[in-house]
Amino acid sequence: MKRFYIIAVLFSMILITGCAAPRVNLFNAVPDPLKEFTLEGTGSDKVLLISVTGLISDSPKKDLIGTSPSVVEEVVAQINKAKRDKQIKAVLLKINSAGGTITASDLLYHEISVYKEKTGVKIAVSMMDVAASGAYYISLPADVIMAHPTTITGSVGVISLQPKVSGLMNKLGLGVDVKKFGRHKDMGSPFRESSEEEQKLMQKAVNDFGERFIGLVKKHRKLSPQALTEVSTARVFLADEALGLGLVDKIGYISDALQETKKIAGISEDARVVVYRRMKFPEDNYYNIAGAELGKLNIPLINLELPEAFGLKAGFYYLWPGAISMD
Hints:
The protein is an alpha/beta fold. The protein has helices at residues 2-17, 71-83, 102-119, 134-137, 166-172, 196-221, 225-231, 239-245, 254-265, and strands at 35-40, 46-53, 61-62, 67-68, 88-97, 99-101, 122-132, 144-147, 152-154, 159-161, 236-238, 250-251, 272-277, 315-319. 34% of the residues lie in helices and 21% in strands.
């Protein structure tokens, strides 16, 4: 039984520090630059397809071999490249994510908004399995949002994750001696229970972040008061429910989203659909999520990627916990 408690403490500390395992860096290669590849079309105008997949974070993705760019870095690298190409008339974001940290989500929202404002390029979103919380947040600047018929979206809210191990440590006879300057310096510490005052302060922060999210939904989606009340519960919605509430504009497949994107951009049917990759993929298509990643180093024969839940650190998230990957 004592061994079980020790293992539990170690596991809790892993969650707190965000360090799930030691990393061995077998590859020290510098990533190749982004290159453009055409998926279809022959026209001069272009639609850029950008995949946004997994936990939205500005921290590099870690596996047992090394690291790859964060979702924020991947998307911003592609946006920056697109800024230099005047033939790009529209960007279609293909999103499959349960959200992420509040700052990373807000960074992508900002970058997408600024790109749209400065270039006049139309922005569209095609939601896949999940486009919830922070993933919906980054969809808000879009001119049109299309959900797949089986998409889950919504979760317009904030969650604060603060692991606590004080109860387990008490059972083991362990403690942490803390010296501090400032009454709230160790607020949120995993080694003790939060006071009533600290809980109120943390809840205020959660409320402020939540009001920011709701404020942006009001700005971009123009929902009815009844719909906004329902959305503010932070529940998730199926595609047809989201359409009825006004969270999305249409329901369809990615081919439908591309057609709609060309329509709102006022470009021809034969406009090229392009992607940015770091390497060429045979039989490349819409459903390839490689995006701006490092290429073949990130497609191992054995999946060494750490579960997303182990990458979550204490903090505030625009995230739907129901879709956290434990694979």
